[in-house]
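ok so i was messing around last nite and threw this chain in just to see what happens. nothing serious, just curious
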Amino acid sequence: MTHCSIDTFTENCKLVIVNLAMLIKIILQNKKNVKVQLRSGTEVIDEVDFPLDFHFDTVLVTSIDKILKENRIDRVSPPDVLLEGFGEEASMSSLIAKTVAEALKIK
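result:
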């Protein structure tokens, strides 16, 4: 790992800074469970698991809100959002996850 200071800022330092960016990852697992992770680079900082059911929209928003609150992340500028496992474009769960991800991008 490259250590950087203001005086010696190089291309390698830029890569280190990018890898430390916060990310919310919403993962659909085996079409029955959903995992919401807060990540910094490749490290999982916090995560919440819940079943995919009729109340997916409410549970997803509540889970993201809980992770942001517990980790003291400002809701005005939340981390980027990545969706994984939501392959079917027309499925309701996929549409809900995409809508929530887009809503988090609004600042």
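not much to say yet. The chain is about 35% helix and 30% strand.
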